[in-house]
């Protein structure tokens, strides 16, 4: 599975509607509105790089209100929850 983080510039007057429309696209797992240099951040998970090519410019980029995107492909995932789970394997004595 390929995970990409998509930074999205959106029209200020349509951020909630734009975010919901993006969230409704298959392959988009989460959309966050945020402060800073971008208006929205979407987490995308697809099976192939071709899937990214189809999803980001052809679907996300064409949602009304989207002014532009910047995509970052994730190589590896790190999380404290994953680390805690790994260290607790077999800790219950089973």
UniProtKB/TrEMBL annotation:
Listed Pfam families: AsnC_trans_reg
Gene3D superfamilies referenced in this protein's UniProt entry, alphabetically: 3.30.70.920
Domain Transcription regulator AsnC/Lrp ligand binding: 6-76
Source organism, top-level taxon: Bacteria
InterPro entries: Dimeric_a/b-barrel (IPR011008), Tscrpt_reg_AsnC/Lrp_C (IPR019887)
Protein name, UniProt field: AsnC-like helix-turn-helix protein
Species: Amycolatopsis cihanbeyliensis
């Amino acid at each position: 599975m390929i995970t990409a983080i998509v930074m999205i510039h959106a029209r200020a007057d349509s951020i909630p509607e734009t975010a919901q429309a993006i969230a409704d696209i298959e392959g988009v797992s989460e959309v966050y509105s945020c402060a800073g240099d971008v208006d929205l951040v979407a987490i995308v998970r697809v099976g192939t790089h071709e899937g990214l090519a189809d999803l980001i410019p052809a679907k996300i980029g064409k949602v009304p209100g989207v002014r532009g995107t910047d995509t970052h492909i994730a190589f590896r995932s790190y999380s404290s929850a994953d680390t805690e789970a790994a260290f607790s394997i077999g800790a219950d004595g089973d």
